[in-house]
Fold Sugar transferase.
Amino acid sequence: MKKIVFTVADYGDGNDAGPKAKRDVDYFLSQNGFEIIHQQLNNKSKLDKLKSAYWTIPHLFNRVDKFDELFFQYPTYSSYVMKKLIKRMRLKSKRLFFIIHDVESLRLFQNDSEYWQGERALFNATDGLIVHNSKMKQWLQENGVTVPMVELGIFDYDNPQEINQASGYDKTICFAGNLAKSKFLNKIDLEKSRMEIFGSNPSKQYLEGVSYQGQLSPDELPKKLTQNFGLVWDGDELDTCGGKFGNYMRYNNPHKVSLYLSSGQPVIIWKEAALANFILKNKLGVAVSSLETLDGILENITEEQYSEMKMNTIKIAKSLRKGEFIKKAVEKIEIITQ
């Protein structure tokens, strides 16, 4: 049986973590005998989209033989190109599945019914979807997606650095991400604990106990993740995760959770995030409703509690580094759609 993973992505070596999740799916599924098709599509202008739809995509699929299964890493960030792409994929493959990285109707196009109609049609044109978690699956089902769906659980993470085994508890925390959209960091003021932050676009100055540590590539960053916890938060406020990206946490699996866990670092996550249930069930950290008393949150965690979280995190880090979650999800969607 010939199986393909088709990925439209930027495979640059910069510090942007954006392509990392798709690159890891390619890597882990190639271990299970999947062939990988990479294609970079330039969709910045209308002319670029027309070129992709009527030249690049047809020529790409004319060069490949037919296959039994195609797993497409969704989305391409151009709905026009996506419509043309799915027609070509259908002609070449007996079965077509999407591995969902983002549902744009939940992310950038919230409450846009016209956009959702188009995205829903794409989902229902497949034989099945691998979605992030139960919250995302429920929303899709309630809003008209009828094809079979399998929950990934959490994104795997190919981490080249050694797992941090240190279990001493000193009330330290880190945050990694695009700091320009993480304005809540400007409001954190710590006296009894310490936070180190990594990423692009830092503020000129942070309050007491918070220090900027620079920007590193997704492969180099784990070397610096030696703090007790990794923080998963979004938006401008300390008492909630707000805005489009904050609300998106109610449905998605933030990739930075996998970065932290695969490095051996338990997490502190927003209580209303979709992944909070996964973290609490597996005792991989704590879920909180507010960061207004971050000192107090860290103060209330005992060394024994932290030691248990650390032990569980090291265990799951080994699974994430093997790609166990995507491999199991692919196997399950294949079985239930036979």
Observations:
- The chain has a mean pLDDT of 91.
- The chain has two domains: 3-156+322-336, 172-320.
